[in-house]
Amino acid sequence: MPTSDRTLTERDVSAKSHWIAVSAVAFGTFLLVTAEQLPIGLLAPVGSALSVSEGAAGLMVTVPSVVAAVAAPAVPVLVGRLDRRLLLIALMGLMTLANLASALAPDYQLLITARVLVGVAIGGFWAIAGGLAVRLAPPSHVPRATAIIFGGVGAANVFGVPIGTMIGGLANWRVAFGALSVLALAVLVALLIVLPPLTAAQPVGLRRLAGQFRNRGVRVGILATFLIVTGHFSAYTFIGPVLRDLSGIDEHLIGPLLFGFGMAGIAGNFIAGAAVSKRLHRTVLSIAVALGVTVLLYPVAGLTAAGGVTLLVVWGLAYGGVSTSLQTWMIKSAPQAVEEASALWVAVFNLSIGLGALAGGAIVDALPLQGVLWLAGVLLLAAGAAVRGARRNESLR
């Protein structure tokens, strides 16, 4: 880590408080991913209440993902040297207002407008938060701090979305969005209290962003992210039909099994957090290969309930380490430009979510269900090949 970053860490965060600050940021990522994915479980009630189809209601998920991909590099560029503490607090304030607007939206158009604001908050907050571990933790604890920050992503998939969906079912979809607004306000207060001043050492500019593509480690990280996330979501979007039609699992069991997938993902996140501090390159390569092999095995070894469940758990365990390992890859590839590299990474990550689901849908409509698994497997193994080619870079070992 550069000397300037070490100085900032020592001055801004005491040994007793840095984990509290890291945990507050993790709570923020938990809320962001929950807000992004919550509508998945509310499509029917929202569509019914606002007189739109479930397909149109699905834009509540697509729109913020696309906006987040644009906002991730745009927000750091536009705010210049603004204290990152103030920026995170402002973005969480925007999240509070956007979810309140979603809860109160009288029609579909205003609801989608509110979801655009959610996308801005997601992209901007994630782009900054992804690189904060080097500012909020001692150098030797950066991988662990990164794992904690991205643990919020796995926790949202396990707890946030199901609990929000349950609230929407028991009360009303507007109550679910209102609860998110209250939680966002709580995160805002926590960030205000525990985060130290985080002045940007150098403003993020378009030239510095573009300059990251001259860094081979950054290029490989972005390519690996695109292939892994696109491959994962092209198949995982249709994991319900895969478990039902290929593995013969009763549809009522799919929900609990996906909860198990999320729990395995949380475990995988922290396992990867420990592994990347010792063997970063090997960890990322192992994750890509494990995902590719697991997905490709489904049409062969996943044709029974036992086989399907076993592969699902392995899949969750491997994918849980993706965010932590790839973010660490970007940090180590560009130690002097962490914000720029993180912003590009977040943009590609969010864009790949939408592209993966879109590609998977096209394959499922044109080919048998196994086709989407073959597509995902090829993309994931291609990511492994790209990562393997970067093994000579000393900083990534």
From TrEMBL:
Gene3D superfamilies (alphabetical): MFS general substrate transporter like domains (1.20.1250.20)
Transmembrane regions listed in the UniProt entry: 20-44, 56-79, 86-106, 112-134, 146-171, 177-199, 220-241, 253-272, 284-306, 312-331, 343-363, 369-387
Chief location: membrane
Protein name according to UniProt: MFS transporter
Keywords associated with the record: Cell membrane, Membrane, Transmembrane, Transmembrane helix
InterPro entries, per the entry: MFS (IPR011701), MFS_dom (IPR020846), MFS_Efflux_Transporters (IPR050189), MFS_trans_sf (IPR036259), Tet-R_TetA/multi-R_MdtG-like (IPR001958)
Keyword field contains Endoplasmic reticulum: no
Keyword hit for Ubl conjugation: no
Localization terms from the record: Cell membrane
Bilayer disposition of the protein: Multi-pass membrane protein
Ranges of residues in domain Major facilitator superfamily (MFS) profile: 21-394
